[in-house]
Amino acid sequence: MEDYIRILKGTKLFSGIAEDEISLMLSCLDAHLREYRKGEYVFRQGEYISTIMMLVDGELHIQQDDYWGNRSIISHISAGDMFGEAYIAPESGALLNDVVAVEDSTVIFLDAKKIMTVCSSACRFHSIVVQNLFFAISEKNRKLVMKLGHISKRTTREKLISYLSAESRRQNSSDFTIPFNRQQLADFLSVDRSAMSNELCRMRNEGLLRFDKSRFTLLLPEKN
Amino acid sequence: MEDYIRILKGTKLFSGIAEDEISLMLSCLDAHLREYRKGEYVFRQGEYISTIMMLVDGELHIQQDDYWGNRSIISHISAGDMFGEAYIAPESGALLNDVVAVEDSTVIFLDAKKIMTVCSSACRFHSIVVQNLFFAISEKNRKLVMKLGHISKRTTREKLISYLSAESRRQNSSDFTIPFNRQQLADFLSVDRSAMSNELCRMRNEGLLRFDKSRFTLLLPEKN
DNA sequence: TACCTTTTGTTGTAAAAACAACTGATATGT
DNA sequence: ACATATCAGTTGTTTTTACAACAAAAGGTA
User: Fold this and answer.
1) β-bridge mates for residue B145, sequence order
2) B84 and B136 together in one domain
3) Which chain B residues are within 8 Å of A68, Cβ to Cβ?
4) Cys-Cys crosslink for A180: which of A30, A53, A164, A185, Cβ 3.0 to 4.6 Å?
5) Shortest CA–C1' contact from B213: which nucleotide?
6) Does residue B78 approach strand D to less than 7 Å at its CB?
7) How many structural domains comprise chain B?
């Protein structure tokens, strides 16, 4: 467990907590550790969880099989990421996803109830962790809403406009760089890459924007 | 303010708190109230907020204008709903949406910092509210992830399969009722209603499912 | 430099969705 | 019972997307 203190220090949950403090908190939070071999399931759909998980080594997929057996990958967890935090509320119900190791992985489990309830003992930093947890889930929330806003647009052009507008707003400039290449942007907006490439070029020809690689410039239409 | 205690009692944030306790907490949380006329803005994109809002009367839209001025409605707030809770983290940045009253509305503002920090005074129920807040945002989170899973499918059929599978799983039966009519389901999945209706009937003809109004039955394909 | 890989843009075709307009069916209210 | 409104399904047309295959450009490296 102690081997991973450094990793934990870099996570959102333990942000602002010193390494020796984390070490103390781990016992307070009833932390335990488990290793998984590649292909092993960490959780299966239908299980109930009462812990928050930190992946400290390896790689996991959160995936889902539909009624007819088609599998789809919901998200990708790397070392330092937290998962399961949205399922610790008592009315959360069962997990709707499988969590499976795609590489040999190491997971630290933290007792959710002990995180949520400020303990009477010496954990001076407990309330910081509670705040961190709340802020982390808030951030996930904001990102989800934004992405939903983009994806729920009907056409590829509208999705692009929605995403590029938001990015321009976020970076406070009509000229900005996005953190995706074309394929990644297409995956993010869940559209076909070539169709998207096509649409981008059409928009450029219409004078809506300019771009070079991942750098975009939005243009207001000329007044005639 | 006191007029709305009953409404507050029914909200997720104050769940499990008695009316007289809520009344006490309101001053502890530095609650204040403001009324808005239809069409008035509660917040504008770019503002920073440090409060959590409860809509106790009326109706709001959370909406967004893109770079070129096209407006789109992100979500719809009714009396008893909470909003803004995902923006109280210090690193949240500015609001990305406008919040506007579509009817005459009454909003109660609660100081976010005072909610997050357990106070020294007599609020025995403060920690319940903190938990409620966390659980509420968790629930929003789970719903967002699920919706994103459905919407990010490419075709209308896949979206339907994804949604109906999840609903079947949630209700633990291949036979279940959905909380939407056709138009609402189409809006939820952000597809065209008639195209969706079309697809549903095609799926029925292929023996994938049966439905009557909002009641659906999923069927496993016959073995030949 | 020559070779390989990755990334992006382009084209054509088939499939799917959006859109509009209409038909029944089923409420709802007077 | 009548008028009205709402909802679901259907059809035909236009627009958009997905998909596949390829070309061109950029970058890395042996």
Assistant:
1) none
2) yes
3) 161, 165, 208, 220-221
4) A185
5) D8
6) no
7) 2
